Amino acid sequence: MKNKLLKTITMLSKGFLYGLILQMLLVNFSSIMQAKGQYKGIEEVTIRLSAPLLTIRQFFKEVERETPFKFAYDNKRLDQSQVIHFDSQSGTVEEGLITVGKQLNIRFRQINHIIDVFHHKKEGGHPQIVQEWDTVTGTVKDQNGEAIPGATILVVGTNTGTATDLEGNFTLEVDEGAVLQISFIGYQSQRVTVSNQTNLNIILEENHSSLEEVVVVGYGTRERKDLTGAISQINSEEITKTASLTPEMAMQGKMAGVFVSNPGSNPNARPSIRIRGVSTLGYNDPLFVIDGIPLVEGGAASGDARNQDLRGNVNVFNLINPNDIESISVLKDASATAIYGVRASNGVILITTKRGSKGKPKVSISSRYGVQNIKNDWDVMNTQDYVETYLEALNNNPAASPDPNYFRFYDSSSPEYLGNSPYYTDEWLNATRVKNAVIQDHNVSITGGNEMSNYAVGAGFSGQENAMYTSTFNRYSAYVNSDHQIASWLKVGESFRFVYSQTEEDGGAGLNTAFSAPWQPLYDPSGFRGYATPGRMVGDGFLSNVMVVPREIIFLPFLN
């Protein structure tokens, strides 16, 4: 059974190899024939003129209309009103040009589909039709003398070209003085001027930098970032133009196909990033790679909700100072999965931090300080509006049967009627906003180096207060790195990064509470720490969210 399977695989492999070789031969043959037959000479193209007498302008227009040829001439030197007499209205373009040349004492020169018009220096000279191409043959080889099949030979400035055969040989018809460009993948292109040669021997040198790019593509290096795929990139200048304290917000609105949501004024909140939309019903966050090291945040990608809780609610990327970033690149298509595997299915964000460079020591200092305020005031219902809306909803629902225990609060004839209660929503809204919330960012760095070594040292402080009640974020960061070229084949470097961050979260009720019952006061001088207890006086007793009555519990959701 094994032998039979092995024979089958061998037979299929041979068939595939023979088919591939045959296909390559056919493609090369068709390319050569197409290149050689791309242009026809003036002696091959026929034309029929509209009349035996034509001006030079009319003759040019009829040739250009009926053939692919175009004329190039000097308007100042050529009188286009001159009349030519043609013995025959039918014939080749070459015969027509000879007739024109004899009568007007001009000559023509064809290069591809362009026919140049020249004047004779001596009167009475015989008109000339200059044929456009000479036949040139040649061979293209590498530095080891091996033939390079499939190399492209192109006449610079034209569409004329051909390709070498399996033995590296080519044949091409070109004009004397033409420049040939010879190129092949992995080799440096070369240009050769055709003078009196009829045979050319071309030696192509390997393009080492090009080959290195193919090997290093996308594997976290700083110079090459998966050039075969869709990529967006921003540099340090664009990053530092924004007042953002996190790398995610520095990307917002600057990369095509990358959506970054604003989590609000909370500095600890995690922005949502989606690359080319939502790809799954589950985890959609991209993979972050910082200086070549993938960063996975807790159990974020886990399918188990308990493991997902390990992630926490604080944005871990607050630890990265945007001022320390040299560039941010986003790999958006499937080619990223060839490098980082299934983790890259939602895209990859490559973050490269700053390093030293050759030159004198350079000191950079930046400082920002500002305040944040929420300017908009919300137009919300007062107590009377709230009660009227409730009654309108009740009247529009015939099936409703309100509980008499709390319907009395909406009955205008009841002493517990809420419509006449004071309005406290503005009090709550003002308490949820932090006036002049501070945002600041201060950084200093020193970079430099020479031919053998470079270094970079920096430190920074960033702080932000939430404009809504209430949270704060402070970050102290410092970094040191250097690179040393010990030998031509050995480079040594190190990177140290120190970050200390402080986050504070005061879990207030937020706007949900502020927008609920408008008759609920916030402050009470006699209450605990000066705050009012949720609820209200009803008769001789105080009712809170839950009112306990013998043998039953009545929930009063409107008494927040």
Which percent bin holds the helix content? Answer: 10-25%
CATH superfamily of the largest domain: TonB-dependent receptor, plug domain
* Count of individual domains: 4
Strand order of the largest sheet: 16-21-22-19-20
Arithmetic mean pLDDT: 76
- The CATH topology of the largest domain is given as Ferric Hydroxamate Uptake Protein, Chain A, domain 1
How would you describe this structure to a colleague?
Helix content is 20%, strand content 32%. With 560 residues, it is an alpha+beta fold. The chain folds into 4 domains: 2-36 and 133-206, Carboxypeptidase-like, regulatory domain (Immunoglobulin-like, Sandwich), CATH 2.60.40.1120; 46-130, Phage tail protein beta-alpha-beta fold (3-Layer(bab) Sandwich), CATH 3.55.50; 215-353, Ferric Hydroxamate Uptake Protein, Chain A, domain 1; 383-422 and 523-555, no CATH class. A hairpin with a 2-residue loop joins strand 6 (106-111) and strand 7. The longest helix is centred in the N-terminal third of the chain and has 35 residues, at 2-36.
SSE layout:
Layout: H1 2-36, E1 46-48, E2 53-55, H2 56-66, E3 70-72, E4 83-85, E5 90-92, H3 93-104, E6 106-111, E7 114-119, E8 129-130, E9 134-141, E10 152-155, E11 161-163, E12 169-174, E13 179-183, E14 190-193, E15 199-203, H4 208-216, E16 231-235, H5 236-240, H6 247-250, E17 258-260, E18 273-275, E19 287-290, E20 293-295, H7 305-308, E21 325-331, H8 337-340, E22 348-353, E23 359-372, H9 383-395, H10 404-407, H11 425-432, E24 437-449, E25 453-465, E26 471-487, E27 490-505, H12 511-514, E28 536-538, E29 541-543, E30 546-549, E31 552-555
Parallel strand pairs: 3-7, 6-8, 9-15, 19-22
Antiparallel strand pairs: 1-5, 2-4, 6-7, 9-12, 10-11, 10-13, 13-14, 16-21, 17-18, 19-20, 21-22, 23-24, 24-25, 25-26, 26-27, 28-29, 30-31
